[in-house]
Protein backbone atom coordinates (compact mmCIF):
# COMPACT_ATOMS: atom_id res chain seq x y z
CA UNK A 1 0.00 0.00 0.00
CA UNK A 2 1.33 3.38 -1.01
CA UNK A 3 0.51 5.40 2.10
CA UNK A 4 -0.86 8.90 1.47
CA UNK A 5 -0.83 8.53 -2.32
CA UNK A 6 -4.31 10.06 -2.48
CA UNK A 7 -5.83 13.23 -1.06
CA UNK A 8 -6.32 13.27 2.72
CA UNK A 9 -9.73 12.52 4.22
CA UNK A 10 -10.81 15.20 6.71
CA UNK A 11 -13.23 14.00 9.37
CA UNK A 12 -16.01 16.28 10.56
CA UNK A 13 -19.07 15.50 12.66
CA UNK A 14 -21.49 14.50 9.90
CA UNK A 15 -20.13 11.18 8.69
CA UNK A 16 -18.13 10.08 5.67
CA UNK A 17 -18.67 8.78 2.14
CA UNK A 18 -18.09 5.34 0.69
CA UNK A 19 -15.26 6.84 -1.36
CA UNK A 20 -13.62 8.03 1.87
CA UNK A 21 -13.71 4.49 3.28
CA UNK A 22 -12.15 2.99 0.16
CA UNK A 23 -9.52 5.73 0.03
CA UNK A 24 -8.38 5.02 3.58
CA UNK A 25 -8.80 1.25 3.58
CA UNK A 26 -7.30 0.51 0.18
CA UNK A 27 -5.54 3.68 -0.90
CA UNK A 28 -3.76 4.55 2.34
CA UNK A 29 -5.23 8.06 2.41
CA UNK A 30 -4.13 10.24 5.30
CA UNK A 31 -6.80 10.97 7.92
CA UNK A 32 -7.13 14.41 9.52
CA UNK A 33 -9.49 15.80 12.17
CA UNK A 34 -11.31 19.02 11.36
CA UNK A 35 -11.63 21.85 13.86
CA UNK A 36 -15.35 21.12 13.94
CA UNK A 37 -14.66 17.55 15.02
CA UNK A 38 -12.16 18.58 17.71
CA UNK A 39 -14.65 21.10 19.12
CA UNK A 40 -17.42 18.49 19.19
CA UNK A 41 -15.12 15.96 20.85
CA UNK A 42 -14.18 18.41 23.59
CA UNK A 43 -17.80 19.42 24.19
CA UNK A 44 -18.98 15.82 24.53
CA UNK A 45 -16.07 15.04 26.81
CA UNK A 46 -17.08 17.92 29.04
CA UNK A 47 -20.50 16.32 29.48
CA UNK A 48 -18.95 12.97 30.40
CA UNK A 49 -16.51 14.57 32.86
CA UNK A 50 -19.37 16.43 34.56
CA UNK A 51 -21.37 13.21 34.92
CA UNK A 52 -18.33 11.29 36.14
CA UNK A 53 -17.93 13.77 38.98
CA UNK A 54 -21.46 13.12 40.24
CA UNK A 55 -22.29 10.35 42.72
CA UNK A 56 -25.07 8.89 40.55
CA UNK A 57 -24.16 5.78 38.50
CA UNK A 58 -24.12 6.29 34.72
CA UNK A 59 -23.86 3.32 32.35
CA UNK A 60 -20.52 3.19 30.60
CA UNK A 61 -19.14 6.01 32.75
CA UNK A 62 -19.32 4.70 36.29
CA UNK A 63 -20.80 1.19 35.97
CA UNK A 64 -19.81 -2.20 34.68
CA UNK A 65 -20.90 -3.38 31.24
CA UNK A 66 -23.46 -5.72 29.75
CA UNK A 67 -24.75 -8.19 32.31
CA UNK A 68 -22.41 -6.57 34.88
CA UNK A 69 -23.89 -3.09 34.48
CA UNK A 70 -25.49 -3.13 37.94
CA UNK A 71 -22.20 -2.52 39.73
CA UNK A 72 -21.28 1.09 40.52
CA UNK A 73 -17.56 1.67 39.95
CA UNK A 74 -15.68 4.06 42.22
CA UNK A 75 -13.54 6.81 40.67
CA UNK A 76 -10.21 5.21 41.50
CA UNK A 77 -11.19 2.04 39.56
CA UNK A 78 -12.62 3.65 36.43
CA UNK A 79 -9.40 3.82 34.45
CA UNK A 80 -8.79 0.18 35.23
CA UNK A 81 -12.37 -0.61 34.19
CA UNK A 82 -11.83 0.94 30.75
CA UNK A 83 -8.51 -0.86 30.25
CA UNK A 84 -10.04 -4.13 31.37
CA UNK A 85 -12.95 -4.02 28.96
CA UNK A 86 -10.50 -3.65 26.07
CA UNK A 87 -8.21 -6.41 27.30
CA UNK A 88 -10.98 -8.88 28.12
CA UNK A 89 -12.92 -8.21 24.92
CA UNK A 90 -9.84 -8.66 22.70
CA UNK A 91 -10.68 -12.36 22.58
CA UNK A 92 -10.73 -13.07 18.85
CA UNK A 93 -9.60 -16.37 17.38
CA UNK A 94 -8.78 -17.78 13.98
CA UNK A 95 -6.86 -16.42 11.00
CA UNK A 96 -6.02 -12.75 10.64
CA UNK A 97 -8.48 -10.46 8.93
CA UNK A 98 -7.28 -8.63 5.82
CA UNK A 99 -5.43 -5.33 6.24
CA UNK A 100 -8.01 -3.35 4.27
CA UNK A 101 -10.81 -4.62 6.51
CA UNK A 102 -8.97 -3.57 9.67
CA UNK A 103 -8.22 -0.12 8.25
CA UNK A 104 -11.88 0.34 7.32
CA UNK A 105 -12.88 -0.83 10.80
CA UNK A 106 -10.55 1.67 12.50
CA UNK A 107 -11.50 4.54 10.21
CA UNK A 108 -15.24 4.04 10.69
CA UNK A 109 -14.86 3.85 14.47
CA UNK A 110 -12.94 7.12 14.31
CA UNK A 111 -15.74 8.56 12.18
CA UNK A 112 -18.25 7.87 14.97
CA UNK A 113 -15.85 9.12 17.64
CA UNK A 114 -15.58 12.43 15.75
CA UNK A 115 -19.35 12.82 15.69
CA UNK A 116 -19.27 14.26 19.20
CA UNK A 117 -21.66 11.62 20.54
CA UNK A 118 -19.18 9.26 22.22
CA UNK A 119 -17.45 11.32 24.92
CA UNK A 120 -13.95 10.34 23.79
CA UNK A 121 -11.25 12.97 24.31
CA UNK A 122 -9.76 14.73 21.27
CA UNK A 123 -6.30 13.30 22.03
CA UNK A 124 -7.62 9.73 21.81
CA UNK A 125 -9.20 10.50 18.44
CA UNK A 126 -5.94 12.01 17.24
CA UNK A 127 -4.06 8.89 18.30
CA UNK A 128 -6.48 6.79 16.26
CA UNK A 129 -5.72 8.95 13.22
CA UNK A 130 -1.98 8.77 13.93
CA UNK A 131 -2.05 4.97 14.00
CA UNK A 132 -3.88 4.87 10.66
CA UNK A 133 -1.50 7.40 9.14
CA UNK A 134 1.54 5.47 10.33
CA UNK A 135 0.33 2.37 8.49
CA UNK A 136 0.04 0.40 11.74
CA UNK A 137 -2.63 -2.31 11.44
CA UNK A 138 -3.78 -4.18 14.56
CA UNK A 139 -3.94 -7.95 14.35
CA UNK A 140 -7.67 -8.75 14.22
CA UNK A 141 -8.98 -12.30 14.06
CA UNK A 142 -11.75 -13.88 12.01
CA UNK A 143 -13.99 -14.89 14.91
CA UNK A 144 -15.24 -12.79 17.80
CA UNK A 145 -18.18 -10.71 16.59
CA UNK A 146 -21.88 -11.55 16.83
CA UNK A 147 -22.79 -8.27 15.15
CA UNK A 148 -24.56 -6.85 18.17
CA UNK A 149 -23.14 -4.49 20.76
CA UNK A 150 -21.01 -3.89 17.72
CA UNK A 151 -18.10 -5.86 16.34
CA UNK A 152 -16.77 -6.23 19.87
CA UNK A 153 -13.71 -8.47 19.60
CA UNK A 154 -12.42 -6.97 16.33
CA UNK A 155 -12.74 -3.42 17.66
CA UNK A 156 -11.17 -4.46 20.97
CA UNK A 157 -8.05 -5.68 19.19
CA UNK A 158 -7.83 -2.26 17.52
CA UNK A 159 -8.29 -0.46 20.84
CA UNK A 160 -5.63 -2.67 22.41
CA UNK A 161 -3.12 -1.32 19.89
CA UNK A 162 -3.99 2.25 20.93
CA UNK A 163 -3.03 1.24 24.48
CA UNK A 164 0.31 -0.10 23.21
CA UNK A 165 -0.66 -3.70 23.89
CA UNK A 166 -1.19 -6.75 21.72
CA UNK A 167 0.24 -7.22 18.24
CA UNK A 168 0.04 -5.17 15.09
CA UNK A 169 1.45 -5.14 11.59
CA UNK A 170 3.78 -2.34 10.62
CA UNK A 171 3.90 -0.60 7.25
CA UNK A 172 6.58 -3.11 6.22
CA UNK A 173 4.17 -6.00 6.72
CA UNK A 174 5.98 -7.42 9.75
CA UNK A 175 3.97 -8.22 12.89
CA UNK A 176 5.48 -6.82 16.08
CA UNK A 177 4.34 -5.89 19.59
CA UNK A 178 2.06 -2.86 19.27
CA UNK A 179 4.02 -0.90 21.87
CA UNK A 180 7.20 -1.18 19.80
CA UNK A 181 5.42 0.00 16.66
CA UNK A 182 3.89 2.99 18.41
CA UNK A 183 7.27 3.96 19.86
CA UNK A 184 8.95 3.62 16.46
CA UNK A 185 6.49 6.14 15.02
CA UNK A 186 6.56 8.53 17.98
CA UNK A 187 3.00 7.73 19.08
CA UNK A 188 2.28 7.69 22.81
CA UNK A 189 -0.10 4.94 24.02
CA UNK A 190 -3.44 6.26 25.30
CA UNK A 191 -4.49 6.11 28.95
CA UNK A 192 -8.22 5.48 28.77
CA UNK A 193 -10.65 7.40 30.97
CA UNK A 194 -14.35 7.11 31.74
CA UNK A 195 -16.44 5.70 28.87
CA UNK A 196 -13.56 5.68 26.37
CA UNK A 197 -12.90 1.94 26.40
CA UNK A 198 -16.55 1.19 25.76
CA UNK A 199 -16.81 3.87 23.06
CA UNK A 200 -13.94 2.32 21.12
CA UNK A 201 -15.64 -1.09 20.97
CA UNK A 202 -19.32 -0.51 20.44
CA UNK A 203 -20.00 -0.14 16.72
CA UNK A 204 -20.95 -1.94 13.52
CA UNK A 205 -17.82 -0.63 11.81
CA UNK A 206 -16.36 -3.93 10.63
CA UNK A 207 -19.46 -5.16 8.88
CA UNK A 208 -20.09 -1.68 7.42
CA UNK A 209 -16.54 -1.39 6.09
CA UNK A 210 -16.85 -4.77 4.39
CA UNK A 211 -20.24 -3.78 2.94
CA UNK A 212 -18.78 -0.60 1.45
CA UNK A 213 -15.85 -2.42 -0.13
CA UNK A 214 -18.07 -5.24 -1.42
CA UNK A 215 -20.31 -2.68 -3.12
CA UNK A 216 -17.29 -1.11 -4.79
CA UNK A 217 -16.17 -4.53 -6.05
CA UNK A 218 -19.66 -5.60 -7.14
CA UNK A 219 -20.20 -2.42 -9.13
CA UNK A 220 -17.25 -3.45 -11.28
CA UNK A 221 -18.27 -7.11 -11.41
CA UNK A 222 -21.82 -6.41 -12.56
CA UNK A 223 -20.45 -4.38 -15.45
CA UNK A 224 -18.01 -7.21 -16.16
CA UNK A 225 -20.88 -9.73 -16.13
CA UNK A 226 -22.76 -7.70 -18.73
CA UNK A 227 -19.67 -7.86 -20.94
CA UNK A 228 -19.13 -11.62 -20.52
CA UNK A 229 -22.85 -12.28 -21.12
CA UNK A 230 -22.68 -10.26 -24.34
CA UNK A 231 -19.59 -12.14 -25.47
CA UNK A 232 -21.31 -15.47 -24.82
CA UNK A 233 -24.46 -14.38 -26.66
CA UNK A 234 -22.26 -13.45 -29.59
CA UNK A 235 -20.30 -16.71 -29.47
CA UNK A 236 -23.57 -18.69 -29.47
CA UNK A 237 -24.83 -16.74 -32.52
CA UNK A 238 -27.72 -15.46 -30.44
CA UNK A 239 -30.02 -12.56 -31.09
CA UNK A 240 -29.62 -9.11 -29.58
CA UNK A 241 -33.24 -8.22 -30.32
CA UNK A 242 -34.18 -9.18 -26.76
CA UNK A 243 -32.01 -6.30 -25.55
CA UNK A 244 -34.09 -3.61 -27.25
CA UNK A 245 -34.83 -0.70 -24.87
CA UNK A 246 -38.56 -0.79 -25.58
CA UNK A 247 -38.79 -4.35 -24.24
CA UNK A 248 -37.21 -3.34 -20.96
CA UNK A 249 -39.21 -0.13 -20.68
CA UNK A 250 -42.42 -2.13 -20.20
CA UNK A 251 -40.92 -3.77 -17.10
CA UNK A 252 -39.21 -0.71 -15.67
CA UNK A 253 -36.65 -2.11 -13.29
CA UNK A 254 -33.67 0.29 -13.49
CA UNK A 255 -31.00 -2.37 -13.13
CA UNK A 256 -32.49 -4.52 -15.87
CA UNK A 257 -32.54 -1.61 -18.30
CA UNK A 258 -28.92 -0.75 -17.44
CA UNK A 259 -27.69 -4.31 -18.00
CA UNK A 260 -29.54 -4.63 -21.30
CA UNK A 261 -28.12 -1.31 -22.48
CA UNK A 262 -24.60 -2.43 -21.56
CA UNK A 263 -24.94 -5.69 -23.47
CA UNK A 264 -26.42 -3.93 -26.48
CA UNK A 265 -23.52 -1.47 -26.49
CA UNK A 266 -20.97 -4.29 -26.42
CA UNK A 267 -22.74 -6.12 -29.28
CA UNK A 268 -23.14 -3.09 -31.54
CA UNK A 269 -21.79 -3.85 -35.00
CA UNK A 270 -21.43 -7.60 -34.41
CA UNK A 271 -21.36 -9.91 -37.40
CA UNK A 272 -22.13 -12.92 -35.19
CA UNK A 273 -25.53 -11.99 -33.76
CA UNK A 274 -28.70 -12.76 -35.70
CA UNK A 275 -27.59 -16.12 -37.08
CA UNK A 276 -29.96 -18.06 -34.81
CA UNK A 277 -32.21 -19.01 -37.75
CA UNK A 278 -29.37 -20.65 -39.68
CA UNK A 279 -28.32 -24.29 -39.56
CA UNK A 280 -30.51 -25.64 -36.73
CA UNK A 281 -32.99 -22.76 -36.35
CA UNK A 282 -34.15 -21.69 -32.89
CA UNK A 283 -36.92 -19.26 -32.13
CA UNK A 284 -35.45 -18.11 -28.82
CA UNK A 285 -32.16 -18.26 -27.00
CA UNK A 286 -31.94 -20.17 -23.73
CA UNK A 287 -32.89 -18.39 -20.51
CA UNK A 288 -29.27 -18.04 -19.38
CA UNK A 289 -28.65 -15.88 -22.46
CA UNK A 290 -32.03 -14.25 -23.04
CA UNK A 291 -32.70 -13.40 -19.38
CA UNK A 292 -29.20 -12.17 -18.55
CA UNK A 293 -30.36 -8.53 -18.09
CA UNK A 294 -33.23 -9.58 -15.85
CA UNK A 295 -30.97 -11.52 -13.49
CA UNK A 296 -28.06 -9.08 -13.49
CA UNK A 297 -30.52 -6.20 -13.25
CA UNK A 298 -32.15 -7.63 -10.15
CA UNK A 299 -28.70 -7.79 -8.59
CA UNK A 300 -28.04 -4.19 -9.55
CA UNK A 301 -31.26 -3.10 -7.86
CA UNK A 302 -30.28 -5.10 -4.78
CA UNK A 303 -27.01 -3.18 -4.78
CA UNK A 304 -28.91 0.10 -4.97
CA UNK A 305 -30.85 -0.81 -1.83
CA UNK A 306 -27.67 -1.93 -0.06
CA UNK A 307 -26.00 1.33 -1.04
CA UNK A 308 -28.86 3.29 0.56
CA UNK A 309 -28.39 1.35 3.80
CA UNK A 310 -24.62 1.91 3.68
CA UNK A 311 -25.05 5.65 3.14
CA UNK A 312 -27.35 5.90 6.16
CA UNK A 313 -24.87 3.99 8.28
CA UNK A 314 -21.99 6.14 7.08
CA UNK A 315 -23.92 9.18 8.33
CA UNK A 316 -24.66 7.53 11.69
CA UNK A 317 -23.05 7.70 15.11
CA UNK A 318 -23.25 4.17 16.55
CA UNK A 319 -22.38 3.85 20.22
CA UNK A 320 -23.98 2.89 23.51
CA UNK A 321 -24.49 4.91 25.57
CA UNK A 322 -24.42 8.09 23.49
CA UNK A 323 -23.78 11.68 24.52
CA UNK A 324 -26.55 14.09 23.53
CA UNK A 325 -26.32 17.85 23.94
CA UNK A 326 -28.71 19.87 26.13
CA UNK A 327 -32.30 19.19 27.14
CA UNK A 328 -33.87 16.33 28.98
CA UNK A 329 -35.85 13.28 28.02
CA UNK A 330 -38.14 10.92 29.86
CA UNK A 331 -35.76 8.06 29.12
CA UNK A 332 -32.72 10.02 30.26
CA UNK A 333 -30.17 7.98 32.17
CA UNK A 334 -28.11 10.89 33.39
CA UNK A 335 -27.76 14.59 32.84
CA UNK A 336 -25.18 17.27 33.29
CA UNK A 337 -25.73 20.95 32.83
CA UNK A 338 -24.83 20.77 29.15
CA UNK A 339 -26.18 17.43 28.02
CA UNK A 340 -27.04 13.87 28.82
CA UNK A 341 -25.88 10.30 28.34
CA UNK A 342 -28.46 7.72 27.28
CA UNK A 343 -28.55 4.04 26.45
CA UNK A 344 -29.89 2.91 23.09
CA UNK A 345 -29.96 -0.05 20.71
CA UNK A 346 -28.36 1.53 17.68
CA UNK A 347 -25.44 -0.89 17.83
CA UNK A 348 -27.63 -3.73 16.52
CA UNK A 349 -26.33 -4.76 13.12
CA UNK A 350 -29.60 -5.95 11.55
CA UNK A 351 -29.86 -3.25 8.84
CA UNK A 352 -26.35 -3.99 7.61
CA UNK A 353 -26.58 -7.76 8.09
CA UNK A 354 -29.70 -8.08 5.97
CA UNK A 355 -28.23 -6.35 2.93
CA UNK A 356 -24.94 -8.23 3.28
CA UNK A 357 -26.88 -11.48 3.03
CA UNK A 358 -29.05 -10.13 0.20
CA UNK A 359 -25.95 -9.26 -1.81
CA UNK A 360 -24.53 -12.77 -1.30
CA UNK A 361 -27.76 -14.23 -2.71
CA UNK A 362 -27.64 -11.93 -5.74
CA UNK A 363 -23.95 -12.70 -6.33
CA UNK A 364 -24.62 -16.44 -6.20
CA UNK A 365 -27.38 -16.15 -8.77
CA UNK A 366 -25.23 -14.05 -11.08
CA UNK A 367 -22.50 -16.68 -10.83
CA UNK A 368 -25.02 -19.44 -11.45
CA UNK A 369 -26.32 -17.96 -14.70
CA UNK A 370 -22.76 -17.24 -15.89
CA UNK A 371 -21.82 -20.86 -15.30
CA UNK A 372 -24.86 -22.05 -17.28
CA UNK A 373 -23.83 -19.86 -20.21
CA UNK A 374 -20.31 -21.24 -20.05
CA UNK A 375 -21.60 -24.79 -20.07
CA UNK A 376 -23.60 -24.07 -23.24
CA UNK A 377 -20.43 -22.91 -24.97
CA UNK A 378 -18.77 -26.26 -24.20
CA UNK A 379 -21.65 -28.59 -25.10
CA UNK A 380 -21.59 -29.48 -28.82
CA UNK A 381 -25.32 -30.22 -28.69
CA UNK A 382 -26.16 -26.68 -27.57
CA UNK A 383 -23.32 -24.51 -28.84
CA UNK A 384 -24.55 -24.26 -32.44
CA UNK A 385 -21.49 -25.51 -34.23
CA UNK A 386 -18.66 -25.07 -31.77
CA UNK A 387 -16.34 -28.05 -31.10
CA UNK A 388 -16.90 -30.11 -27.94
CA UNK A 389 -15.42 -28.30 -24.93
CA UNK A 390 -13.87 -25.84 -27.40
CA UNK A 391 -11.11 -28.44 -27.82
CA UNK A 392 -8.58 -28.33 -30.65
CA UNK A 393 -8.89 -32.06 -31.38
CA UNK A 394 -11.75 -33.36 -29.25
CA UNK A 395 -10.97 -36.76 -27.77
CA UNK A 396 -7.25 -36.17 -27.89
CA UNK A 397 -7.75 -32.74 -26.31
CA UNK A 398 -10.14 -32.09 -23.43
CA UNK A 399 -10.32 -28.35 -24.04
CA UNK A 400 -12.03 -26.42 -21.28
CA UNK A 401 -13.84 -29.38 -19.73
CA UNK A 402 -12.21 -29.04 -16.33
CA UNK A 403 -12.21 -25.26 -16.38
CA UNK A 404 -15.99 -25.61 -16.21
CA UNK A 405 -15.62 -28.08 -13.32
CA UNK A 406 -13.71 -25.43 -11.44
CA UNK A 407 -16.35 -22.86 -12.27
CA UNK A 408 -19.11 -25.23 -11.12
CA UNK A 409 -17.29 -25.84 -7.83
CA UNK A 410 -17.06 -22.10 -7.25
CA UNK A 411 -20.77 -21.65 -7.96
CA UNK A 412 -21.70 -24.48 -5.63
CA UNK A 413 -19.63 -22.86 -2.88
CA UNK A 414 -21.36 -19.53 -3.54
CA UNK A 415 -24.75 -21.15 -3.09
CA UNK A 416 -23.65 -22.32 0.35
CA UNK A 417 -22.34 -18.83 1.11
CA UNK A 418 -25.76 -17.44 0.14
CA UNK A 419 -27.41 -19.07 3.16
CA UNK A 420 -28.29 -16.03 5.32
CA UNK A 421 -26.23 -15.50 8.45
CA UNK A 422 -28.72 -12.89 9.66
CA UNK A 423 -31.46 -15.52 9.97
CA UNK A 424 -29.50 -16.89 12.91
CA UNK A 425 -29.15 -15.50 16.40
CA UNK A 426 -27.38 -16.89 19.43
CA UNK A 427 -27.74 -15.33 22.91
CA UNK A 428 -24.74 -14.14 24.90
CA UNK A 429 -23.72 -12.16 28.00
CA UNK A 430 -25.95 -14.08 30.42
CA UNK A 431 -29.00 -13.47 28.18
CA UNK A 432 -28.60 -9.67 28.33
CA UNK A 433 -27.63 -9.73 24.66
CA UNK A 434 -30.29 -12.27 23.73
CA UNK A 435 -30.72 -11.37 20.07
CA UNK A 436 -27.81 -10.64 17.74
CA UNK A 437 -27.45 -9.86 14.03
CA UNK A 438 -24.51 -12.06 12.94
CA UNK A 439 -23.63 -9.21 10.58
CA UNK A 440 -19.88 -9.76 10.82
CA UNK A 441 -20.38 -13.36 9.65
CA UNK A 442 -22.60 -12.13 6.81
CA UNK A 443 -19.84 -9.73 5.77
CA UNK A 444 -17.12 -12.36 5.89
CA UNK A 445 -19.01 -14.76 3.66
CA UNK A 446 -19.92 -11.95 1.25
CA UNK A 447 -16.22 -11.21 0.81
CA UNK A 448 -15.67 -14.87 -0.11
CA UNK A 449 -18.64 -14.75 -2.49
CA UNK A 450 -17.35 -11.64 -4.26
CA UNK A 451 -13.94 -13.26 -4.63
CA UNK A 452 -15.49 -16.37 -6.17
CA UNK A 453 -17.77 -14.37 -8.47
CA UNK A 454 -14.69 -12.76 -9.97
CA UNK A 455 -13.28 -16.21 -10.76
CA UNK A 456 -16.58 -17.43 -12.22
CA UNK A 457 -16.74 -14.48 -14.61
CA UNK A 458 -13.10 -15.03 -15.52
CA UNK A 459 -13.91 -18.57 -16.66
CA UNK A 460 -16.84 -17.32 -18.75
CA UNK A 461 -14.57 -14.69 -20.29
CA UNK A 462 -11.96 -17.33 -21.08
CA UNK A 463 -14.51 -19.62 -22.74
CA UNK A 464 -16.39 -16.89 -24.62
CA UNK A 465 -13.28 -15.30 -26.12
CA UNK A 466 -12.01 -18.69 -27.28
CA UNK A 467 -15.43 -19.51 -28.77
CA UNK A 468 -15.59 -16.21 -30.67
CA UNK A 469 -12.17 -16.86 -32.17
CA UNK A 470 -13.37 -20.28 -33.32
CA UNK A 471 -16.19 -18.67 -35.33
CA UNK A 472 -14.08 -18.29 -38.43
CA UNK A 473 -15.47 -16.13 -41.21
CA UNK A 474 -17.67 -14.05 -38.90
CA UNK A 475 -16.61 -10.66 -37.56
CA UNK A 476 -17.22 -9.93 -33.86
CA UNK A 477 -18.35 -6.54 -32.60
CA UNK A 478 -15.72 -3.79 -32.26
CA UNK A 479 -16.03 -3.95 -28.47
CA UNK A 480 -15.55 -7.72 -28.55
CA UNK A 481 -12.46 -7.32 -30.72
CA UNK A 482 -11.11 -4.84 -28.19
CA UNK A 483 -11.59 -7.42 -25.43
CA UNK A 484 -9.89 -10.12 -27.48
CA UNK A 485 -6.88 -7.93 -28.12
CA UNK A 486 -6.59 -6.81 -24.49
CA UNK A 487 -7.07 -10.25 -22.97
CA UNK A 488 -4.48 -11.84 -25.24
CA UNK A 489 -1.99 -9.11 -24.37
CA UNK A 490 -2.72 -9.88 -20.70
CA UNK A 491 -1.40 -13.41 -21.15
CA UNK A 492 -4.70 -15.27 -21.60
CA UNK A 493 -3.98 -17.53 -24.56
CA UNK A 494 -6.47 -18.40 -27.29
CA UNK A 495 -7.54 -21.66 -28.99
CA UNK A 496 -5.05 -24.47 -29.53
CA UNK A 497 -3.96 -27.87 -28.25
CA UNK A 498 -4.33 -28.67 -24.56
CA UNK A 499 -1.92 -26.91 -22.24
CA UNK A 500 -1.55 -26.17 -18.54
CA UNK A 501 -4.76 -24.17 -17.98
CA UNK A 502 -4.28 -22.77 -14.47
CA UNK A 503 -1.99 -19.90 -15.61
CA UNK A 504 -4.52 -18.86 -18.28
CA UNK A 505 -7.36 -18.87 -15.75
CA UNK A 506 -5.26 -16.92 -13.26
CA UNK A 507 -4.48 -14.32 -15.91
CA UNK A 508 -8.18 -14.05 -16.80
CA UNK A 509 -9.01 -13.66 -13.09
CA UNK A 510 -6.51 -10.81 -12.75
CA UNK A 511 -7.86 -9.21 -15.93
CA UNK A 512 -11.39 -9.11 -14.51
CA UNK A 513 -10.35 -8.29 -10.93
CA UNK A 514 -8.29 -5.26 -11.94
CA UNK A 515 -11.11 -3.82 -14.03
CA UNK A 516 -9.27 -4.32 -17.30
CA UNK A 517 -12.21 -6.08 -18.95
CA UNK A 518 -14.46 -3.06 -18.48
CA UNK A 519 -11.58 -0.76 -19.39
CA UNK A 520 -11.11 -2.64 -22.65
CA UNK A 521 -14.68 -2.08 -23.88
CA UNK A 522 -15.44 1.44 -22.65
CA UNK A 523 -13.28 3.25 -25.25
CA UNK A 524 -15.58 1.61 -27.82
CA UNK A 525 -18.93 1.62 -26.03
CA UNK A 526 -18.56 4.70 -23.86
CA UNK A 527 -18.99 4.41 -20.08
CA UNK A 528 -21.04 1.37 -19.06
CA UNK A 529 -23.95 1.91 -16.69
UniProtKB/TrEMBL annotation:
Residues 326-335 have a biased composition (Low complexity). One of its GO terms (cellular component) is cytoplasm. The keyword Lyase applies. Belongs to the PAL/histidase family. The modification 2,3-didehydroalanine (Ser) is found at residue 149. It is found in: Cytoplasm. Residues 320-343 are annotated as: Disordered. Its main location: cytoplasm. It catalyses: L-histidine = trans-urocanate + NH4(+). InterPro entries: Aromatic_Lyase (IPR001106), Fumarase/histidase_N (IPR024083), HutH (IPR005921), L-Aspartase-like (IPR008948), Phe/His_NH3-lyase_AS (IPR022313). NCBIfam families: hutH, PRK09367.1. This is Histidine ammonia-lyase. Its EC number is 4.3.1.3. There is a cross-link at residues 148-150 (5-imidazolinone (Ala-Gly)). It is an enzyme of class 4 (lyase). It comes from the Bacteria. Contains an active site 4-methylidene-imidazol-5-one (MIO), which is formed autocatalytically by cyclization and dehydration of residues Cys-Ser-Gly. Keywords: Cytoplasm, Histidine metabolism, Lyase. It comes from Streptomyces acidicola. PROSITE patterns: PAL_HISTIDASE. GO terms for molecular function: histidine ammonia-lyase activity; phenylalanine ammonia-lyase activity. Pathway: Amino-acid degradation; L-histidine degradation into L-glutamate; N-formimidoyl-L-glutamate from L-histidine: step 1/3. One of its GO terms (biological process) is cinnamic acid biosynthetic process.
